[in-house]
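Recall the central idea of this unit: under ordinary conditions, the amino acid sequence of a chain determines the structure it adopts. In this exercise we apply that idea directly, starting from the sequence alone.
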Amino acid sequence: MQHIQLTSRLANNTADATGLKQRHREKILNALIAMPEGGTFDEIAKATGMEYAAVGRRVNELVADSKVKDSGHKGKSPTGRAAIVWEVIPQQLTLLS
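Accordingly, the structure predicted from this sequence is:
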């Protein structure tokens, strides 16, 4: 288990050092701006070409940074379960323009 945690930490640090995290966050924000009704992790992954798990990690960071929020609506996950629809916080749209 410790090996997996160490590997994950190293991958996270590498992604941060290379700017990958920031590029992913920008791709997600741009995708959500293009989705007026917001998008689920799966929809965002398809729109950006990113992996589902990477979308989840970056969206959680964007939520923590007050750039993205739960829209209060539900979509469908690939398995048919309810999925949160995410949207850009309106104040962020003016900052990004």
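The CA atoms of residues 5 and 71 lie 32 Å apart.
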